[in-house]
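Below is how a single chain appears once it has passed through the pipeline. First comes the sequence as given, then the structure the pipeline wrote out for it. We keep one example in the README because the format questions we get most often are answered faster by looking than by reading.
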Amino acid sequence: MTRTTATTHEGPAGAASVAGLLLAAGGGRRLGGRPKALLEHRGRPLVEHAARILAEGGCAPRYVVLGAASEEVRARARLPGCVLLDNPAWADGMGSSLRAGLAALVPGDASAALVTLVDQPRVGAAAVARLLAAYRAGAGLVAASYDGERGHPVLFAREHWAGVARAATGDRGARDYLRAHAPELTLVECGDVADPGDVDTPDDLPLLG
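Resulting structure:
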């Protein structure tokens, strides 16, 4: 990504859109190669739940980055209203999916991107809405926190996208960028409405219940 557009953060009366960006490309290596997007959650693929909470929390448009078993995800999951993106480099780690998603957003009109992960089924619409409220109040770099510890979702105003993409390598995602810009980061406590546990191993599968 080679260009950015500076934005101002307007109040609720005339706010520009915040795109939802769902990273759902993981192959579930520690789950025996079960793609995370296709894990069953309440009888349906987990990616459906993750995409739905972006809409319920107030994000539009919504982009879903697919990787492992992308054709099967497209065939099995119902994702109305979502733009589906394939990341051929998904095995390189989360950073490649974040870069792919941000690159797809650049030509659009969204003033910010809110990024969620498919493997956190207990992070719901309430957490998404809290981050959007912080953005509407003027914060351009926002992350959910849990008992004071930074977690997901995270939100980046458009002027941060190029820097985030440059820093996103391997499985680190936006971690290095957020650390480097800590003075600008607004943390929004979400521990009372969400559980940040992620489904990485078979021991984590009860989170899907």
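The first strand starts at residue 18 and ends at 24.

See the next section for the split statistics.
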